[in-house]
Each structure stands twice: as C-alpha cells, then as structure tokens.
Amino acid sequence: MITLSVNGRDHSVDADPATPLLYVLRDDLGLNAAKFGCGLGQCGSCMVLVDGAPVVSCVTPVAALEGRRIRTVEGLGTADDPGPVQRAFIEEQAAQCGYCIPGFMISAQALLERTAAPSDAEIRDALHPNLCRCGTHMRIFKAVRRAAQAMQTADAAGTGQEDAR
Questions:
Q1: Could you tell me where the DSSP H helices lie in 10-93?
Q2: I want to staple 82 with a disulfide (CB 3.0 to 4.6 A). Which of 43, 72, 86, 92 is the partner?
Q3: The pTM is what?
C-alpha cells in the first residue's frame, strides 16, 4: 500500500510501486483530468503538480510520491466554482478539442504560484513543455495573462491565494 496525498486528501492505493501516477489517478482515484498523450513525458497532457511543481505523471512512478502533495486540475476548482486559471481558460475559450488543456492549466497554475506577474517570456517558457495540436496557443496565452490578473486582484483585495485557489 502506498499513501498518496491528492488534492488535499490522503488515498491508500494498492499499486505496484513502479506504476505511473497517471494510471493511479485515472484508474484508482477516478481523477480523469490528466490525460494519456504520448506516454513518454513529452507532450504535457498528463501534467500534475507535485509540491507545487509541474510533473509529467505518465512517467512518474507512484513510489516516488509518498509524502508529497499532488494536485490535479480537479484540485484547482470545481465546475460550479472554477479556480482563477480554470475560469480564465473558460472566459478566453482557450480549449478547442480540450485534450491538452488540463496540462496547460497545471503549468499555468505552477507559474502563477511562483510568479504573480509573469512576463510574456516567462509564460512561454512555463508552457513550453505542453503541446496543443489544435493551435489555440494565443488563446491559452491570453488565458494565463487573465488568470494572473485575477489572482493579483484577489491578492490586492485581501482575499488571498486561498480564495483565488
């Protein structure tokens, strides 16, 4: 048994220690936002946050994650109460097919948690591990800018990161 802390809850999982986190998230925990893309850690569709850093879950064994905080797109907000990054992606209509969007959201969330007002170059650098074959890169870029502004406004209003998720 391996205990994983996912989206603020501990889960005991009976899995081979070499099992990629992506499979445990989807098959054991029913968290389906992270997607199987290339299976090689090269497209970013499976991206999740581990201790605040983006990690490709398709090549990360669960044995490496015990005692670490894992956050998926499901942990950023809900359909009824989306987090600022999720809300910005919706408002900018950043998704076309949507397959890659959870990975982009995770990369954006990681960036905005460490850099409140990122430059265009920092946004491009943070999103560079993620691939979108539909070509909505400019909308994704605008969504990250919008989320940054929303998170800064929440911080300035004193509602802080907790309310801004």
A1: 21-23, 84-91
A2: 86
A3: 0.92
pLDDT tens for the 165 residues of the chain, in order: 999 999 999 999 999 999 999 999 999 999 999 999 999 999 999 999 999 999 999 999 999 999 999 999 999 999 999 999 999 999 999 988 888 999 999 999 999 999 999 999 999 999 999 988 888 899 999 999 999 999 999 888 876 544 445
Could you tell me if 21 and 48 are in contact, meaning their C-beta atoms sit under 8 angstroms apart?
Answer: yes
One-letter amino acid at 49 equals L
Q: What are phi and psi of 43, to 5 degrees?
A: -110, -20
Token couple for 159: 């509602």
Which residues on neighbouring strands pair with residue 13, listed in sequence order?
A: 2
Long-range contacts: 54-60, Cβ < 8 Å, 24+? 54/106, 54/107, 54/110, 54/129, 55/21, 56/129, 57/20, 57/21, 57/22, 57/25, 58/20, 58/21, 58/22, 59/20, 60/20, 60/21, 60/22
Q: Report CA 113 to chain centroid distance, whole Å.
A: 12
Q: How far apart are CA 107 and CA 103, in angstroms?
A: 6
Question: Residues near 58 by Cβ (< 8 Å), separated by ≥ 6?
Answer: 20, 21, 22, 36, 37, 38, 39, 40, 41, 46
